[in-house]
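Much of the work behind modern protein science is quiet bookkeeping, done one molecule at a time. The protein below has been through that process, and both of its lines are reproduced in full.


***
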Amino acid sequence: MPENASAYTDSKRIESTKILPGLKIPLACFLAVYVLTGTAAVAPGEQQKNAGVITEIRAVLRAQQDAWNRGDIDGFMNGYARSGSTTFVSEDAVRRGWENVRERYLKKYSDRAKMGVLTFSDLEIMPLDSDSAVVLGRWKLKSAQDRPHGRFTLIFRKTADGWRIVHDHTSAAAPPQ
């Protein structure tokens, strides 16, 4: 076989598999968005199940917010899995275990005035499968002294006690200058 024959055959093979040049980029972008956002058709039963999960997780977060605003840290902590593997990340520290997370809240918010009024907002609840979900959101505290706020990412697991937070990564926005 002549040396150039292989190059000719390869270039013809490549050329024959090309998509119309004007469609290459839009088609690739569409496929990437389609796959990454999970816009594939979801069966009606799956949509209903996801709606139920979202409703249940919203209820846990509402109960946490309400408990906080009553000054009830133990009630707030009911939203977390009572496990040694429950993880809380904030202020450049990692705390493991439900008791350690609770101790952190009790120490940082030692009285009702420090607790202020908590608001969760901008919640994005994304079920991953039948027993786990990721939640993105904002938190705001309003107290007499200041107005801290920030973002959080939570991983929820379905446990024997219902949906509970097993991982919490919370960040605070820089205070206004």
